[in-house]
## 1
Amino acid sequence: MRTQFKQMLATGNVFIWGCAAGVSLSLLMVFGLLLLIMINGLGYFWISDIVDLTLKDGQHVMGQLAGREVIPRSITPDRPEGKSRVRVKIGNRDLSGLDFKWVNDDQIVSQDYPADVVLLERREWGNMYARIQAVYSGEKLLAEGNEAGWTALGPLISSADNLHRQIKQIEQFEIGAINADIERLRLKIRADEMEHPASSVSSEMKAQVADTETRYREKTAELETLRARFDEYSVVMVDANGREKRIAVGQIVRALRPNEMGAWQKSWIYLVNVWAALSTEPREANTEGGIFPAIFGTVMMVIIMSLAVVPFGVLAALYLREYARQGVMVRLVRIAVNNLAGVPSIVFGVFGLGFFIYAIGGTLDTLFFPERLPTPTFGTGGILWASLTLALLTVPVVIVSTEEGLAAVPREFREGSLALGATKLETMLKVVIPSALPGILTGLILAMARAAGEVAPLMLTGVVKLAPALPLDGSWPFFHFDRKFMHLGFHIYDVGFQSPNVEAAKPMVYITTLVLITVVILLNLTAIVLRNHLRKKYAGSVL
């Protein structure tokens, strides 16, 4: 028996099967995690039916079913251990103070799915599940009763939505541009005062200031008119227990009757919800709405980081591999580069805070933006400093991968190029680097994928919970590298651990996680496609 065991070990089959089992188990764990995230994330967008539960005490619980469980160990009499209960998303947070409620099965007398119940998706306070009692224009009654109110409510929501877009257009772009002009004039006046303390403001400057203030007052008056129209209509809703709530129509994003909707209608709403999550701004402390600013900030940060890390990483690798005399010093540099790859990311964040923000940013403010002080411009966190910090974090990956790609280029390629009369620089640019591009680009994409998921350095160098403006917009100079930004990784941390409403925030955590994983997977797939394409293009090299 011992001889057979030794023979089996000698063949190596045990280790082969052990490695295969380990890889299979790892893949199962990864796919299981992805499946869990997809179910909890993508399931959030589906509009399920609204149930009305009648309890033994005569009260009603109305909402969307959100899960079932067997009651775990408990010492409270209202939660008997071992019995099952259902979780209902009751909404109506402004009435009940809760988003979800657990109901024991033995307390339910009956359940119904009334067709006339309305789901109101609101800009604040979450969803509302109720029936329409009346619709008003100011204090004037427009429609009374659930059916008449439902008929009147749809056009009013559409009109209010158009007004909301107009208000945002004026606030963010038109008034925003005027505020930018006012700030520019203020800084110009202050710069003149600092340069010529005794001089007074010129008449031309006064005329510009007066013109800007006039435009601001006109836009403010227009905005007040639109807001008055926006708040003109209201609807009175009645929940399952008879409690009334008056809601401004302008606060309603959408009104639905899920119990009347078929599968095709729900599928269309599902696609609309997915697109809204990817293309709109967050609301309700980031627990509802979309994540577009976080997606945009993540992608722009990775692009800036890539533009910064490629030149330094590739040039450093070229020098170490092709130009530096191999010896103790070069070996020490390689060891240092490899060690940098293992430094905790928060250390890079502290370095970025001290070096980029306080040292370089503070110096730039003193030299080029003295009129803005003491308010810092580049002496505070921003997307530029966050990107450069992540460039430092990922440059070891690019250096190592570039060196490996350069080492894989056969020596005959270099010698043949030099023998044909090319200079060493021409050989590097036209022979060696193109042949090593698969390794270089693979390292770059892997660095981009790592940077997309980093959070700790960003918390010190420019990421915020909610950014008032994107780093890229239509106002000069278009790219605002000093602005703070949102990031998918930090959004997950903020919503999952800093949200005041944890239960309502869970779906958004899964959604953001799924989007972040998708971005990382796409970056890795891009690396594989580029590598395979370049391998075919430079098939003569051994890569």
Note: The mean pLDDT is 85.
## 2
Amino acid sequence: MATFLYKLGRLAFRRRHFAALIWVALLTLAGVGAASAPVAGSSSFSIPGTEAQKAFDLLESRFPGMSADGATARVVFKAPAGEKMADKGNKATVEQAVKVLGTGSEVTSVTDPFKAHAVSKDGTVAYASVKYDVSGMELKDASKDALKAAAEDARHSGLTVEVGGDALQATPETGSSEVIGIAIAAVVLVITFGSLIAAGLPLLTALVGVGIGVSTITALASVLDLGSTTSTLAMMIGLAVGIDYALFIVSRYRAELAEGREREEAAGRAVGTAGSAVVFAGLTVVIALVGLSVVNIPMLTKMGVAAAGTVAIAVLIALTMIPALLGYAGRRVQPAGKKSRLLGGGRAAKKAGKPNMGTRWASFVVRRPLAVLLLGVVGLGAAAVPAASLQLGLPDDGSQPTSTTQRRAYDLLSEGFGPGFNGPLMVVVDAKASDAPKTAFSTVHDEIADLKGVVSVSPAAPNKAGDTAMITVIPDSKPSSVTTEDLVHTIRGAGGDIKAETDATVLVTGSTAMNIDFSQKLNDALIPYLALVVGLAFLLLIVVFRSILVPLKAALGFLLSVMAALGAVVAVFQWGWLSGLMGVEETGPIMSMMPIFMVGVVFGLAMDYEVFLVTRMREAFVHGEKPGQAIVTGFKHGARVVTAAAVIMIAVFSGFIGSSESMIKMIGFGLAIAVFFDAFVVRMALVPAVLALLGKRAWWLPKWLDRVLPNVDVEGEGLRALDEKAREGDDDRKLVGV
């Protein structure tokens, strides 16, 4: 592989105009596609194989025209202090609002609070339910404006009016902190390279890669049913790995220049060596992201595949566009150890022979491996302790900032009708096989009404055929509570006895039940997913490192870092530690997809540092250095770059903590802290400590396996063979000349 990539790097350097033109053309094509694509609707949320999804599908087939996936809004009214909603003026205001809301072209129904008994017991809070025939993301701006205008008109009369539901669903905003993250990345690159040109190359290529990836996702969003979170995730990961991969190759290019090679040769060797590490690091990320499909949740699969595509683009750009741009940059990219005139006048960065910080740190770890290992493991173990109290759920309006009308509507409904009112359960009774459907409906109603934790149960509402009915159940606890989850399981458990008695099937659905089933499905898939991703990556790393123990150590180190990161997420978002600093207004359960998502993404990203750092050690070892010295050599050449890459990745991920979307905020924090733990504790401390303790055994591989495995030549042995042939050719020419 090294030889092939070496030739590719030289070709891109020589044919720089052609290489750059291809990427500019792809960026333009993707941009035009995104600009001309129809506006995408909301990504459909389905969980195949779950009871909640079966009930949802049954409702669509038995209640045609009800628009089960249509947007909804709850316009919540609260009377001024000392007044009631039934007072003449307040009632007239509500009735006028209901009348106005009903005139919308996309509105299918509006309920009058006074006719639908939607007034609180104390008479101070009421709500009108608005149903639309399209989803929240498909609603026309005119419909949203009409909803806002109706609420605003009612406010003028003195009522407190807020709007909940998904009708006013907005695209998440990441805020200025994302730009700050990119700015920090730029500063780190300038410090690392001592050159504005060299620092700008990784940023430029990363932005091109993300531009192509996100524009392609936008162009295909309507066709493939992709949500806004998909492009945000692709941007987050694409920026981080795009900068890192380009950083690895530019750094190796400068190192090759420092050894006296010509620029084209240096570009070829940089792509042949560091590029090999980039290819395998990218493969681990792609495996981890595509592996999310084993969960069998379409939304998660699409997010993973889209992000994996962006990573693949980042790899290709690093291998082809970076050497092309290095050709354009020419002598403005200095050899390693030198700075540009603007940042230091081309002086040597340090005294000759003085070891750098990476060398000094690695030498210390090699001398005290056991102490470093124990300290690192204990520290990560302590950080992982909060993960033991992990509670999973999905965000709802209760997790929104208090500045939003959705959150204020949520709070008003909780105040007037109880916390469970924001998470009603929809019980679907399928009595098609029953001889007495009405009796079955009545039996289900009475059974549920007698259950503990139920506040109210609506009368059964049958369809036109009379073989299926809907029953709304209001719990006495909030949607994300364990008590509500227990109630869902209790109702489903009672369904078995009801079926035996009446031949009617009882199914529980609704947003709360969907969230519960979603969390359970993710929990069930975590172990198989972990086994698949870690297993495939383990095999891949065996091929790369030609060792059994090094990949095993990499996997175990990853588990430590991801558990510590989960512990930090629980401490901030569930326990509330530093919540003010992170902008977390409401603590609660951790997003259901967080554990499996972190396992996938963090594993892939962690292997970036593992591959780049340890391949340098492997390269030194196979070229004759002793195990301890090979560790020091690997850190001498790789520690500075890996440190810079980690800081950049942390900065990029941290930028998404400023998002208005709680899911994006949590993902940004979780990935940032995971990269910190993995890069600076696992890869920089535990990896050299374990390798120092293992010595030559770290690179042991059974002879039979060595013969079977393909030789991918990440260390660049093929390039050394090319050098030897070139020298032999020179000697032959000299002899002929003699």
Note: The chain has 24 helices and eleven strands.
